[in-house]
Amino acid sequence: MAVETLIELSAVDKGFKASDGTSRTVLEQVELRLHDREIVALLGRSGSGKSTLLRIIAGLVAADKGAVNYRGRPVHGPVAGVAMVFQSFALFPWLTVQQNVELGLEAQGVPAAERARKAGEALELIGLSGFGGALPRELSGGMRQRVGIARALVTNPEVLLMDEAFSALDVLTGQTLRDDMLELWDEQRIDTRSILVVSHNIEETVMMADRIVILSSDPGRVRAQLRIDLPRPRNADSEEVRALVAQVYAMMTQPAGAAPLAAPAPAYRLPDADVERMEAVLDLLAVAPFNGKARLAQLAEETELADEAFLPICEALGILGLAHLVDGELRLDRQGQHYVHARQARRQDLFARQCRGRVPVINYILDALHVAADGAVPEAAVLARLEELMDSEEAARVLKVAIEWGRYAELYEYDFHTRQLRLNRE
Ligand code: ADP
Ligand code: MG
């Protein structure tokens, strides 16, 4: 018997207009299907369009091109049968827990008595019976997200979309809630037929999903997929799970195909990596047990950084020529070797040299500073240049990183009062 397709996206494009009127493609030619009795995890780095994709599926945002179907019917607006859980919980602070959960039903015109009964059931299912009268602020983060989940489940959704639903919680709370959700699913105590979870935590996706879909960035496209046939509940420490985590790390960092996830960033873009963390990762990589070569999964674990923070650091080390990614491993380069063995002052020199040789945006800033008569350039001027190349949010982020790296390298200074960059003249 053929497996039923619940959600089908074909050739979906989505772009947004920047403040200057230029438009930027966020999703391009996205193909995705959600099948009956399937948990799919969507992985991709920050800004790759994961949330946008979920909103398109939920009918909250329209695609520019392509088709979005739910059970063969085109999605034009919010669909009964599809519900979403948000990272921010999105609860109304002035409503009680019970009222927040009932909201999901009010929109559907369900009579009051039935709403109350169903909300009570949903709260019980998720372990919150007795908390109906509480206000969100009286609850812990984990319990608040349970309310967010109850509000989605109360509508008996056939398709449940979870947008980084566990990432605002501390690790243990997030894991507990995730395991509780999986138990409801595996024991079929909820009627949901398909779950799409967005995550940037690789281990989380390996623990949950029947299939992992990896989205590339700029623009977001489906870049790779991986089926996971392990029975649940899965053991995070088992060899199978460790091997899959390593494999997904490799898939996320391998420059395969047109738009690799962590390939050399396009000119002027910089990953979100702070210098201290880069040094910490380098220092770890250099010593036993890694001795200059580490599987990403193991190194990430050793650094205790979330994947969202860890992968940009690997990418930054690659841009700077201090270490490089290959086959899911991070390998120390010769310059990186020099770096870890150098004293602080020498480290800064090396860092400056690598920045000058390999980071276009820092060179652009240095050129501008050299041309300026007084050796100073307003931050706004650099920002304006960056905004020609990327949206303003991204431009501000890149500028912040470039300032941090350049200051550490003592290539230039930044004056917080005048918001000017200034050459570092000794
Ligand atoms: P992710 O969830 O993978 O981090 P998002 O879907 O939130 O990514 O965003 C993808 C890109 O689209 C980002 O660059 C973001 O700034 C941009 N974007 C998202 N929503 C809007 C919007 N309503 N208007 C303009 N740009 C947007
Ligand atoms: Mg998002």
Low-confidence stretches: 256-265
Distance between the termini: 75 Å
List the domain count as a whole number. Answer: 2
Give the amount of beta strand, in percent: 15-25%
The small-molecule ligands in this entry are: adenosine-5'-diphosphate, magnesium ion
Task: Label the overall shape.
Answer: globular
- Number of helical segments? 15
Q: What is the C-level CATH assignment of the largest domain?
A: Alpha Beta
Instruction: Kindly state the percentage of residues in helix.
Output: 40-55%
What report would you give on this structure?
This protein is of the alpha/beta class. The chain has two domains: about 5-255, Rossmann fold (3-Layer(aba) Sandwich); about 260-425, Foki Restriction Endonuclease, Chain A, domain 1 (FokI Restriction Endonuclease, Chain A, domain 1), CATH 3.90.241.10. It has 15 helices and 16 strands. The chain starts with a strand and ends with a strand. The protein binds adenosine-5'-diphosphate and magnesium ion. Magnesium ion (MG) binds near residues 50, 51 and 163. The site of adenosine-5'-diphosphate has 12 residues, from helix 1.
State the gist of this model:
The chain is α/β, with parallel strands linked by helices and 426 residues long. It contains 15 helices and 16 strands.
Features:
FokI Restriction Endonuclease, Chain A, domain 1, 426 residues, binds magnesium ion, binds adenosine-5'-diphosphate, alpha/beta, 4-stranded antiparallel beta sheet, Rossmann fold, single chain, 6-stranded mixed beta sheet, 15 helices
